[in-house]
């Protein structure tokens, strides 16, 4: 039920607004219920049927059914929408001339028969003047008026109408409903385009996230392989930590994660690497308490730390220190990872992690994110991520 209401929320809002406008234009705002005019209520009911009920029955629901069927072309749907519009116009004109008070619709077409004033007898009137007066009288008898009918009158037509007036009203009402149908189709097209764009964005995020899996799994398995021939017990410990890392990563499918959760994931990975590097790997955490609740793309910190170890610590004989700094300032969250580098050392990696992270940042934040990296004094490498500071909403 709630899913159906959410799906048709725009139509519901539009129809509720139209109903309120009709009520204000026909009934108004009475001081009390006793002051409500019965004729005004009757007129409101007739207009409600023609403005709300008939479009929903003959236009909205059939078009929605056609839009959800995959074998209908765009041209066919537009042609059918015009057909539905004129079909609704036929139903509206029939309703106007049978059940409801004639002329109760917003658009009213009526043949008026008025008699011209007979000219007074005068000697100065010639035969030519008499023929002109008779022609003017015939034109007055055959005049047709068209206008907007919006009020609480239920008197209907002053004169009887014929088949011509019925078909003329059907055409006018049909144009009105065709316009409604085209507006509805245009809205549906825009909504469908937004939905496809959102789905495409989600698929791109999924692909970029899953591309990271082979990247860090390959490095972790290399660490385990290096210990197999040195210490079987240590290799067993590495496998257990690798299992915990594997489980933690694949159980968290979210594209956005808190910094606190990212640190937990990095701790699992660092436990793996500390066994391999021992005292060669030193970590310094400078994280503000407020920054722990910040939301950032998943695997961001992990990517920075992994690259720092692979391209910074590994080539150095004596290892080095990795500094991780996170802070919040002026509604911006900043994450910095600094690691030492070997002079004139060229990294042989494919930079898959940073490239994927950069693409994910563009999809999630657009121009509101910054990912930069630079060398400091020829001996340190620093990567910096700046994004809007947001926190996770609690259920």
UniProtKB/TrEMBL annotation:
Domain of life assignment: Bacteria
Protein's UniProt keywords contain tRNA-binding: no
Gene Ontology terms: cellular component: membrane
Sorted UniProt keywords: Kinase, Membrane, Transferase, Transmembrane, Transmembrane helix
Region (Disordered): 115-141
Pfam families, A to Z: His_kinase
Transmembrane segments: 49-68, 77-95, 163-185
Compositional bias ranges of the Basic and acidic residues kind: 125-140
UniProt GO MF annotations: phosphorelay sensor kinase activity
Annotated ranges, domain Signal transduction histidine kinase internal region: 204-281
UniProt name for this protein: Putative transmembrane sensor histidine kinase transcription regulator protein
